[in-house]
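Possible regression after last week's pipeline update?

I re-ran a chain I had predicted before the update to compare outputs. Posting the input and the new output here so someone can diff against the archived version. Not blocking, just want to make sure nothing changed silently.
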Amino acid sequence: MITRKVLDEIRISLGDVRLMAVSKLHPKEDVYALYAMGQRLFGENHVQEIVEKFAGEDGRTPDKPEDLELHMIGHLQTNKVNKVVPLVDMIESIDSYRLLEKVNGAAEKAGKVMPVLLELNTSGEPSKSGFSTEEELLEALEKAKGLKNVRVKGLMTVGPVDLPPEKKDSLT
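New output (post-update):
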């Protein structure tokens, strides 16, 4: 069980780095228990869980404390963009320019500018999302300059879970 003391010790050891609690598959009550202990940054992988935990009765307006920051960290399908954009504070998994355009349109409708991270598939694994080449990523980054309701804040990638030792050496 995580206690306030443990969370405070983690925050002190992290310095300027922020701790994100990934709350997927945990009930809303667990999220708010951590919130009560001072945790403010949460990540969710699935749009349906975001809606269940953080949407008001209409399903479109956020129902969470103003200082609770919520990030979409999982793969986002274009057909779910309109559901998630009004509810989250950042999307960390933009894997195509088409998705970036959809987020821009939904953010405009929601009256907000959405911070995003572009996802690059550095492992080459077909099971992972992301831009498959640096060229595609750079092209999307250049085109993103013309979008008024998204702000690219950085990159995101998920490396392979089990990398052979000889390949690990080439990454350093």
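Follow-up from reviewer: compared with the archived run. The mean pLDDT is 88. Marking as no regression found.
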